[in-house]
């Protein structure tokens, strides 16, 4: 497996993206790949502000949140030392836990999806994932996982919000199916089964 890839993992909160990013990275490294794993919001200055907003310690309008996510994503891509584009130039396969489909799904529960897509076009033009992997988990199961793993829920982490976000994910995938490579896997299963499904699809490309 010699080709370096840019892989975006997507899903509602509690879908298991972080676990799958780790498992996929381990398998790709075993296959001889140099792998860099990352996430959004980042741990940079803008990403840290976003995490505080999501936790409720800082208040912000949803339009402001959408703008901050775009700024964080641009730095995530373009940073001269740690940016995704730089890592790929250095020969890494990059796995990101969330990319612009997260913005399409989450922000579109509060504003026009076409506006969110248009504002993120600069990111899609700079670097489009070789594959977007959607871990399709039922909102009820995701809430069970969130409640068992976290002391407190974040901004979108309730059953109604996650149901709305999942619907917006599916709407965005339908809207952009001609431009994006999208692979959906059943996220209600055991982590090992999901990981095997994902790796088989990655190995195929």
Any idea what the CATH architecture is? 3-Layer(aba) Sandwich
Q: Unreliable stretches, pLDDT < 50, 5 or more residues?
A: none
Number of helices: 10
> What is the helix/strand order?
EHEHHHEHHHEHHEH
> Approximately what portion of the residues adopt beta-strand conformation?
5-15%
Task: Describe the fold and architecture.
The longest helix has 17 residues, at 62-78. The chain has one domain: 3-Layer(aba) Sandwich (Rossmann fold). The protein is built from 10 helices and 5 strands, in the order βαβαααβαααβααβα. It has helices at residues 17-30, 45-55, 62-78, 84-89, 100-107, 113-119, 121-126, 139-149, 159-175, 191-204; strands spanning 6-10, 35-39, 93-97, 131-136, 182-186. α2 packs antiparallel against α3, α5 crosses α9 (159-175) and α8 crosses α9. Strands 2-3-1-4-5 form a 5-stranded parallel β-sheet. The protein is globular, with a radius of gyration of 16 Å. The chain is α/β, with parallel strands linked by helices.
């Amino acid at each position: 497996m010699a080709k370096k890839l840019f892989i975006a993992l997507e899903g509602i909160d509690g879908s298991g993206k972080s676990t799958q990013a780790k498992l996929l990275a381990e398998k790709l490294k075993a296959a001889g790949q140099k792998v860099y794993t990352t996430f959004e919001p980042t741990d940079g200055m803008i990403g840290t502000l976003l995490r505080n907003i999501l936790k409720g310690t800082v208040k912000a309008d949803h339009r402001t949140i959408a703008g901050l996510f775009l700024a964080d994503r641009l730095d995530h891509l373009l940073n001269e030392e740690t940016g995704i584009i730089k890592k790929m130039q250095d020969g890494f396969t990059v796995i990101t836990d969330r990319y612009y489909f997260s913005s399409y799904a989450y922000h579109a529960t509060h504003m026009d999806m076409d506006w969110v897509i248009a504002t993120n076009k600069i990111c899609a033009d700079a670097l489009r994932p070789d594959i977007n992997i959607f871990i399709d988990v039922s909102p009820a199961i995701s809430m069970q996982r969130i409640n068992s793993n976290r002391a407190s829920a974040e901004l979108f982490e309730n059953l109604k919000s996650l149901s709305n976000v999942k619907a917006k994910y599916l709407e965005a995938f339908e809207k952009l199916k001609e431009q994006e490579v999208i692979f959906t896997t059943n996220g209600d299963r055991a982590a090992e089964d999901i990981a095997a499904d994902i790796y088989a699809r990655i190995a195929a490309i």
